[in-house]
Amino acid sequence: MPLSFSFSRIIISSITPKIQTLTTRTMSSSSSTQSHAFAGNPLRSKTPKPGDPTSPNSSLLKLKTLILETNNNNNNKDSVFSKNFKFLPFRKGRPLASSSSNSSSTVWNLGWISLSDCKSIVEKSGNEEKIINEDSFVYLGSKLGKDVEEDFTYWAIDVENVGGDVWVSELSKKQFCFAELRTLMVATDWGDSREMEELAIAGHARALLEWHKISRFCGNCGGKTIPIDAGRRKQCSNEECKKRVYPRVDPVVIMLVIDKENDRALLSRQSRFVPRMWSCLAGFIEPGESLEEAVRRETWEETGIEVGEVIYHSSQPWPVGPNSMPCQLMVGFFAYAKSLEISVDKVELEDARWHSREDVKNALTFAEYEKAQRTAADKVDQMCKGVEKGLNFSSDFNVESGELAPMFIPGPFAIAHHLISAWINQTCIKSSSQCS
């Protein structure tokens, strides 16, 4: 079955070709996973060993102590370490964000808050029975300083069950907002390493929190599951079972099918796509098949094209899919066609066609990805200032002027963009070290 995408707003320019600086930058580095959205999480670069002060269980033990101290109004000297804990609230899958702007640009930031702020907001909700405890937090990672007082650990918290409306009210006073992760994805400046890293952190956090929601019960015996290892694992509470449950990852193959002889690429449309958008084929991997087999099967099932050689390009975490699939892993390939006649499966796809290299290059040219990024960043800024509450960021594309572009492809936030631009610029990797 194909993978459905629902991309946020991209602005389409007039028919006059103009390759944006941002598009060129992402093309030139398309083989690097660091250029992919949600990759390059700095908090996951190295997990501390169990005995380290910033390891999941050590940090959780310290957090329990701090919660107990504040509950008992204890002014123990260890309380000074509460500043070393940073929390990222989520509500309905949306991370807390802030924004700042100047005359030339607008940038967004994740809305990290302190432990005392967490407890203060929950107490204001009036739900005393839901005062935050250690099971409310999910460990995200750590950063080490020059000494122990400069070590920081980072946590995510889902505020929906601890006074969600109060969180919105209290945090909006400080010009914070809960923003859709897809909106932040489009709003990210791909040349800004800080924003790219924060996007990766937010994606990791959302995936873990959504996984916790769908794994409340043991699939083996039906018993209730409880968090262990600071929320990075779960375990069945049934003493006769105690089955461990690990975070779910849903692997997906996404492939650019290439007609080498005629210098064409196969692109497809799904009914959920906005008008004129074309992308790569994609589909979930089935049990018992290799990645290469999945590429060949999905291509055959959806288009009737037989694929021979399959070459790996790169992979991308994709935590913005359905909530029931909290962390897809997109595994990108180039696939070389052995047959050329297309037979579209209309249940799976709306259409699939061969496109010349020139047509695909023009599709890259028409989409003003950099302007889309600036527009989305401005929208986040307006939301944080309370200007445009309830704005739908998945609305249809705007057209500035002139004739509509006949087709365009997803923006640089999607691995499909990097597969296609790599082929256009002949930077894809082939077994012979050359790209066709």
Report on the structure:
With 436 residues, the protein is an alpha+beta fold. 28% of the residues lie in helices and 22% in strands. The chain has helices at 21-28, 56-71, 115-124, 164-172, 181-187, 193-214, 291-303, 357-366, 369-384, 415-424, and strands spanning 85-91, 94-101, 106-110, 137-143, 152-158, 177-178, 225-228, 233-236, 244-245, 250-259, 264-269, 281-284, 307-318, 328-337, 351-356. Strands 1, 2, 3, 4, 5 and 6 form a six-stranded mixed sheet that branches. Strands 10, 11, 12, 13, 14 and 15 form a six-stranded mixed sheet that branches. Strand 8 (233-236) and strand 9 form a beta hairpin. Helix 5 crosses helix 9 and helix 8 (357-366) packs across helix 10. It is globular. The relative contact order is 0.19. Residues 4-33 and 389-402 have low confidence and may be disordered. It catalyses: a 5'-end NAD(+)-phospho-ribonucleoside in mRNA + H2O = a 5'-end phospho-adenosine-phospho-ribonucleoside in mRNA + beta-nicotinamide D-ribonucleotide + 2 H(+). It comes from Papaver atlanticum.
